Structures are given as structure tokens and as C-alpha cells.
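Sample pair:
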Amino acid sequence: MYREWAPDPAIAGRVTCVWTSLAVSAATQLVVPDGCVDLIWGPDGPHVAGPDTGPMPVRMRRGDRYTGVRFRPGSVGEVFGVPVEALRDARVPLDELGVLPDLTLRTMQETLAVRLREVPEPDPAAPAIAEALRTGRTVAQAAWELGLGERQLHRRSLRAFGYGPKTLQRVVRFQRALRLARRGTALAEVALASGYADQSHMANEVRRLAGVSLGGLLSR
């Protein structure tokens, strides 16, 4: 059972939601790349998750509860005391990062609001970078549109999202396809609207990122 709600206004500029997930039976939850970084409280305590470049299965026992704060893509910066690329494809216990030592589940939003005021603002161009890459342009085209050199785009993408622009493009394109498919859009239309060359290209990319077909994701 999963639900999410809006964060406190003090952190809403950089946090997209607060969420909770309760396992009503033993199962394996498949976490797929979404460009986000999450701070999560689980059975083993608080840890930081992401950003992912592939599927991350999570084994949940009946009664396991997870509660998390999800940062907007490109917005986490160095909130956790390390560059975001150091967290790529990782699950790191919060106490290993040496920040937010007094953070508890009850006080997390208030404490995060204080921390966000202490660290530099994220790259203001991050949303525009993600959007330029989502629309099917090549990395070179996106860089030109943004007024950046390709190397500069790579550096800024790595710093903001934790991976380079080619991986970012795959992730944001996949997430758009998933949203459209969940609305019931025909898969051929999903592929076209999401910037894939064709439906076969989309199917291959989805399997690389999620480990299952798009249909398999929709049935979960």
C-alpha cells in the first residue's frame, strides 16, 4: 500500500513529495530510475537512495513500512554532504554520510528546511536541461539550444543529476513513456510522444532501465 502527499512549503521548492509504503504481504518491490534522490526510513533505519540507472529490487516482508522524502530531479545538490554522483546506484546509511545527525522521522521536514538553507542552491538550469533532453534532441542539439558546450552540459548534468546527459535523457524519456502508458495511451503513440525512434526502440530501452517490459511495469 503506497501513498504520497505534498511536502511542507518550506522544502517544497526542492522536494516533490513525502511518501509511505506498507507491505501487506511479502513481496519484491521494483524501484526504477526516475532521476530523483530519496531519503528513506525503513526497517534498518534511515538511508539515502539513488539516483538509479537501472532497476533496484527491494524485498519487503509483511508489515515492513518505508517512509521517504523525494527530492525533485536535479535539486538535491550536496544536501547529504557529498556530490550527487557519489550516490549513484547506491543505498547509503545516513549515519555514514556525517550530516543531519539529529534527523528523526518526526522532525525530518523541519530539519531538512534548515539544512536546505545552509547548502548552495541547485543549478537553476537543471529543469531546462532535463526538458531539452526529454524531447528527443541529441545531446549536441540540447547543448546548442541551452547555449552550452557539450562538455559543459556533461559537467552540469553530472553535478545536478548524478549522471551524464545521455543517461539523463534515457531516464526522463522512460519516465514520460511510463506516465503516458499508465494513462492508457497506445504504445505506438507513447513511443512517438516520448522521443523514441519507434516502439521497438522503446521496448529495448524500457527493459534496460527497468529489467521488465512496459507491460510488466504496468501490471505491478
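The chain has nine helices and eight strands.
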